[in-house]
Structures are given as C-alpha cells and as structure tokens.
Specification:
The structure holds 2 protein chains of 2 kinds.
Chain A (H helix, E strand, L loop, with lengths): L2 H14 L30 H7 L17 H19 L6 H4 L3 E4 L5 H6 L9 H10 L6 E8 L2 H21 L8 E4 L5 H8 L4 E7 L10 E7 L10 E7 L6 H18 L12 H4 L21
Helix pairs in contact in A: 7-9
Chain B lengths: L3 E4 L2 E4 L3 H7 L5 H6 L6 H13 L2 H6 L9 H8 L3 H7 L4 H9 L5 H7 L5 H9 L3 H8 L6 E2 L3 E2 L6 E4 L8 H13 L6 E4 L6 H17 L6 E3 L3 H10 L6 E4 L4 H6 L4 H14 L8 E5 L3 H4 L8 H12 L6 E5 L11 H17 L4 E4 L10 H13 L4 E4 L4 E2 L4 E2 L5 H9 L5 H10 L2 E2 L2 E2 L13
The chains are: A alpha/beta, B alpha/beta.
C-alpha cells in the first residue's frame, strides 16, 4: 500500500470509533429575557439611555444579546429603514398637481430609477412643460413658487401645500407679486433656475422633499435664488431644511422664507453674498449657518 | 502600443489608454453618468483584453491626466521609485495580476515593489480582478502604522468610533463615544465629523474627548474631521490633536474644489509634526471615495476607479495613519446598488493596500441607494476577511448628523468573533483589563457604558 493510502486508512480507523456528533446537552430551561431597553419607556429605560436622551437622538443604551441587537431593537430599526425607503420610492401621482390647482410640470426624467441616477436630467424641464409654462404662467413677477417631489414625494404631499400656502400668503403680505404656483415632478433643486428664468421672476423658490434619514421621510427643504438663470450654482442659493411638524413647522417656515425672498429683492443678490445679519430676529435659526436641531426619535412599532 | 482586440471575430478598437481603463471597469452608475463606460459586457471584456496586454511601462507613460496639466500626476511620476519600477516595467498588466496572485508572492515582496507603482497601474490590475482575486491579494499586503497604538498587524480588525451629533452637543458626543468603547470599538480613532466647521468648536470637541480618553487610560487616538485649514487654526489656538484629517480627490482640479492643494497638505503635515499629540511616526488621516472628482466636474474623462487610485497616490506622500474610502456615501448616481457598492469597497481596499496605505472602509449606504441591510452586513464580513484595516462604528450604524447607514457598535465585535480577529494589541489588553472583552468573547462588562468613566 502507498503511504497516502496507508495514511487515509489509519485516519478512517481513528475517526470511525468516534461519534460524528456527540449528543446535545440535556434540554435547557430557557428563561424569558429581561425586557429590553428599547423603546425607552420609563420601565425599560437604562440609566445610561435616560441620561443620553437629554443630549442625543442616537440609539444609546439599547443593550445587546451576545454581540447582536435585541429583537425589539431590530424591529424598530427595520421600521425606521422601511419608512426612509418608502419615502424615496413613493411617486407623486400624475394628477396630483392639477387636483390641487397647481400648474403641472416635469423635468427631463422619465422614470424613477433615472431620477436617482441622472441628477442632470432632473435639473431641466422637458419640452411640453417648458411650452406650457411659457403659455400659461404669469411673467415679470417678484417670486416664482415651485412645489416639487425631490427625494421624498411623501413630504411633498404631506405638508407641501401648507408650506406653499403660507409662503405665498407671507410674500403677498410683504407686497411681493407672486407668480402662478407650479408643481414639478422628478425635480432636483436646480430646476428652479429654468422655471424662474422662463417666468422672468426676480426670485425663484423651490420647496421639495429632502433626502430621508432613518425613520424620517417627511422633511421638506426650500432653496431660494435671486435672478434665476440656468447655470447658477449652490453658492448662489439660500436654503432652509427640516421643515415638518416636528422640526420647523410649515406655517413658520413660510413666513421666514418670505423674509428671505424680500431680503434678496432688496439687496439684489442671494447666496453667500446675501447679508442676513439684521434679519436674525425674523429668520430665527435660518439666519445663521447653524446646524439643524436633531429630530426626536419616536417608537414606530406597537403590538397591542 | 496595441489598443484593439477581437471577440468572436469582431474587432474592438479604443482611442486611448484612458478609454481602455474606463471601459474595462465593472459597471458603475458614475461612469455611466460621465458617459465613459463600456456599451455592453462584450465591449467591457474587449477593453480588459487590451488592458491585460498593455505593459506597466505603457501605463506609466499614459496617465489619465497629462503630467503638464495636473499636480497629482506630477506627484506620482516624480516620487516614483525607479528601482522598484524596474522590477515590474516589462510585465503586462495581465502578468502582473498573476504575479500578485502567485502563492510565492508574499506581502513583503509586494511591499518592495509598491513604491514603483503609479496609481494607474494599481487601477489597471484592479480591473482584471474578480472580487475574490481582490480579497486574496489584499489579505497578503502588509501595512503596519503607529500613532499612539499600532494598527494593521496580522489578525487584527480595528474600528473608528464615529459619535457624530447634529449640533455638536459635546455631552451627546461623549455619551456615544463611551458606549462605543464599551463594545470594544474605537481602537483606530475616535473621529467626529463636526456640524460646525470652526476652529473653536474643533478645539472644544478634541479637548473633551482627550479628557475622557486620559481619565480611562484608553490607548487610541482622536480626530475632528473639519477642513484642514480649520484644524490648523485649532492647533494654533491650542488643543490636543492626535490625527489631522482631510478629504482628498484624484485630480488637481478636484482637490481645488475641496479647497486644498499639495502645498497646503505639506504645511499641515509639518505643523502636525511639531504640534500633534500622537507618538507617531504616522499622524495623518485621509478620506476618499469613488465619484468625488466627477461631482466637481474634475474627472478629465477618466473613470472613477482610476481617479480613486490617484487619491492614494496623493495620500502616500504623507505616510498616513488612516486612509478610508467612504464607499456608499456619495449616492446612487455614482454607485447604484449593493453589488456596485460592495465591488467598490473591495476595489478601493485592494488598490490602497497595494499602494502601501493602511486602508479602512466606511461600508455604508444612503437611503436613496438600492442597498439593503443584509447586503451591507455581507460587505463588512468580506472586507474584514480581505484584511481591511478598520471599519466605522456608530450606534445602530445610524449617523444622526450625516443621515446615512454605516457599521454599528454591535457589528465590530460580531465580525471580529466570526473571523477570529482582535483589535490593536494595546487596545486589546485595555479591553481585557476592564472586563469589556474576554479574549474573543464579550466580557462581564461588555456593552456597559458606565465602565468608561466621564472625565
């Protein structure tokens, strides 16, 4: 016999005497796990989580099973992720704009996937929209209001109309001529340049759904630009974010955005060169470049 | 130089090495957006066939941005080791791939030729490799660095604690950091992306983190990832700073969009050499990511993998302690989905290691890309198996400031245990002493944040 065959033969002899898998230990008595730390109800919250709650919305003090998450934490996390993904995936219905009395426009994007992959197409109007805007919208105005889906049609449909109304009313109170309200589908921020250029507006204001975070998908952002023209850059714009019921409420945001629009017209500029130092009382946090406040986390999963 | 190949009798001809490199790239939405990708799978293979028969010398002679117009090209060319290059100059890219994969080619041998490789060579061979090829070679590479602790030794997996806060609430940052440490995370760095880019705020956060680390004798290093100019001013104000950070791009124009150039990073490096608080000799921290050059229209018609490699060509000038590719952060217009993000993570890690850098990866996705949580967990295991130097870590992987999903405090000990990896030796000893870890297993105080005392 060759050395190799001899080796294998011996190995087989050795192994055959052993059970391939020894019997398992006797049946365990599995105790119920202690109630886990998330959600933070007073009964289940750890001391550390309680302290952390005052300083951060990060999910701290949630404990662990082995090195992994407790089931409650997994469900909360999956619900937060699902909410964010659903906000991105939701489409603005074709007839939503007209039903709500807005002039419907769309960008050069034809499908949702293309919208995510081609930001350049989301910044320009398609031909029919451009013609319709030229034919039907008021021209030579102070402010062109634009509602849009952006990265969350959910946010647009939820509080977009409220923001648009409060912004329009606040502009009119300040004596500004407001253009025909439009609603743009598959829109990126820079689409306001072509729309405002077409209606010869002094300021264009686009109100659109912002990129969702975990557990949030209903935030709106607003971007304003003076003398909108294709080719304006981010440095030419002023923005306000986190507009929703739990953040900056739409009623208040509309008023602040009108202050911003008026300042642009008065100073004949926007973006980094716009001086907001004397408007800080009226603008609140929007006047500073301060970071936005965290959104409080809410429990998403309940099993009654 | 031959720029054409045949597939089933059909001839494919390319106009330049830049076009060959772009079309040889696996599918990336960013290359589609730039309009430079192969039109189909067959043309992609045709480009790879041409690439496989180009020599390393030809790649050196044809950088994707000309020497005359780009400082990053000049840096790569002027700092190349001629003696190392001579050892590979005659090889085709295909032969070079085979040499890297050869079992007799050790990490030490790769280290000896690394200074003779331009970024285009690393990117070129990357395009001829499958994911498992990339992992096989990466895991051989040896890159060991030291600031306060020693990173990159065999059998180790480190992590950055990333306790970001949307308003830079220092108590919020410290609470998150202490929790991360109690899960065994943070041996690479405690690194905060600040919401406010000011020198005062940078100094305040660093002082607060430093006090907690000192109080607990924790062997790691800290960093606040503001713009390099802001960090330089913070140092002048007077604050501890173990590592200095900057995002890099692969072209001169891309770096200009970031507000930096080589002279500025040279200056930052010199200042850190004098005033940095880590033991060294390594103390710089760089971040990169495919797509950054295109996003500032600074890509010169080159593909995003090659441009990414050129970031590493820039980074290696400073013998950094950490380099990190933030692989899914930039959005689906550059990396569309799970397969693209995973591939990019493995590519970047491979190219960085080949060029001699201590590569980590922020395996992550934004909520508008098509990647799921399970795919992201897969990628963490793949990277760790490939010998990735470090991953990020955050509470439940959720960055509450930057709004994206990354690695979690729970993921790091899970992946380590799965693959038998340990943190840096200094940190490992510290964790065991505090009872946070018991060898590879969770210790009695695992996940108990109170074990880390406030300052």
């Amino acid at each position: 016999m060759s050395t190799t065959r001899l080796l294998i033969e011996r190995l087989r002899q050795d192994l055959i005497s052993a059970d391939p898998l020894p019997p398992p230990p006797s049946l365990p008595n599995i105790p119920l796990a202690p109630s886990r730390i998330f959600p933070r109800t007073p009964e289940t919250e750890s001391l550390y989580a309680r302290e952390a709650r005052h300083h951060t919305t990060a999910l701290l003090g949630i404990g662990h099973v082995g090195t992994r998450y407790a089931t409650e934490v997994v469900l909360q996390f999956q619900a937060e992720l699902a909410v964010a993904h659903a906000a991105v995936d939701t489409l603005l219905p074709d007839d939503w704009a007209e039903k709500n009395g807005l002039l419907p426009l769309r960008s050069r994007v034809t499908a949702h996937r293309e919208f995510l992959l081609r930001p350049d197409l989301g910044r320009r109007l398609d031909e029919p929209s451009l013609r319709r805007l030229e034919a039907e919208a008021d021209k030579e105005i102070d402010v062109q209001p634009i509602l849009a889906d952006g990265l969350s049609a959910v946010a647009c449909m939820k509080s977009g109309l409220l923001l648009l109304e409060s912004f329009t009313a606040a502009c009119k109170r300040r004596g500004l001529r407001v253009g025909t309200p439009v609603c743009a589908r598959f829109a990126r921020v820079w689409l306001e340049d072509e729309i405002g250029q077409t209606t010869r507006a002094r300021v264009a204001a686009i109100l659109l759904g912002e990129r969702p975070g975990l557990g949030t998908g209903d935030g709106l952002s607003a971007y304003l630009v003076y003398e909108p023209r294709v080719g304006k850059t981010d440095g030419d714009r002023n923005m306000m974010s986190n507009i929703h019921a739990r953040g900056l409420p739409p009623e208040l945001a509309g008023d602040r955005l009108a202050v911003l629009a008026k300042a642009m017209i008065d100073q004949r500029t926007s973006g980094v060169t716009l001086d907001l130092s004397r408007l800080s009382a009226e603008l609140g946090e929007a006047a500073s470049r301060a970071p936005r406040q965290p959104q409080p986390r809410t429990r998403l999963v309940e099993v009654p | 130089m031959r720029l054409s190949s045949n597939i089933r009798g059909v001839a494919y001809t390319f106009a330049s090495v830049t076009e060959v490199l772009a079309k040889a790239n696996p599918p990336k939405s960013g290359d589609d957006l730039a309009g430079i990708s192969a039109r189909d799978e067959v043309e992609r293979v045709a480009a790879r066939a041409v690439l496989a028969h180009l020599t390393m010398h030809e790649l050196r002679e044809n950088p994707v941005v000309p020497y005359e117009v780009d400082a990053i090209t000049r840096l790569a060319e002027d700092s190349l080791s001629e003696t190392s290059f001579q050892a590979v100059r005659h090889l085709t890219v295909g032969q070079f791939r085979e040499w890297l994969l050869d079992a007799r080619t050790s990490g030490g041998l790769i280290r000896s030729i690394s200074p003779g490789l331009t970024p285009e060579m690393a990117a070129g061979v990357c395009k001829l490799m499958s994911n498992l090829d990339l992992m096989t070679v990466s895991s051989k590479c040896e890159v060991v660095v030291r600031a306060n602790s020693t990173l990159g030794l065999p059998g180790r997996l480190s992590s950055r604690v990333q306790p970001n806060h949307p308003t830079d609430d220092v108590q919020g940052i410290l609470l998150s950091m202490r929790e991360g440490l109690s899960y065994g995370c943070g041996d690479a760095v405690i690194g905060v992306n600040p919401a406010t880019d000011t020198a005062e705020s940078t100094a305040e956060i660093l002082k607060a983190i430093d006090a907690v680390l000192k109080k607990n004798n924790c062997p790691t290093q800290h960093c606040v990832l503001s713009h390099v100019r802001v960090q330089m001013r913070a140092l002048d104000l007077g604050c501890p700073m173990d590592l200095m950070f900057q995002s890099l791009s692969g072209t001169e124009a891309g770096n200009r969009a970031f507000g930096i150039d080589i002279a500025l990073i040279d200056e930052a490096y010199d200042q850190m050499k004098k005033m940095g608080t880590a033991r060294g000799p390594n103390f710089m921290y760089f971040e990169t990511g495919q797509g950054s050059a295109l996003s500032s229209a600074a890509h010169h018609g080159a593909d995003q993998v090659t441009l990414e490699a050129r970031c590493y060509g820039f980074a290696r000038r400073y013998k950094p302690f950490l380099v990190n590719t933030v692989v899914g952060f930039i959005g689906p217009e550059y990396l569309e989905d799970g397969p693209q993000i995973s591939r990019a993570g493995l590519e970047d890690h491979f190219m960085g290691k080949l060029l001699g850098l201590p590569m980590g990866c922020d395996a992550c996705f934004t909520y508008h890309s098509s990647m799921g949580q399970d795919e992201l967990e897969n990628l963490k295991v793949l990277l760790a198996a490939a010998g990735c130097t470090y991953l990020m870590s955050l509470p439940v992987g959720d960055d509450i400031m930057l709004n994206y999903q990354s690695t979690s405090y729970h993921d790091i000990p899970s992946v380590r245990r799965l693959l038998g990896k340990r943190p840096t030796p200094e940190f490992d000893a510290w964790l065991n002493q505090l009872g946070i870890m018991d060898g590879l297993s969770p210790g009695e105080r695992f996940g108990d944040s109170r074990v880390i005392r406030p300052a």
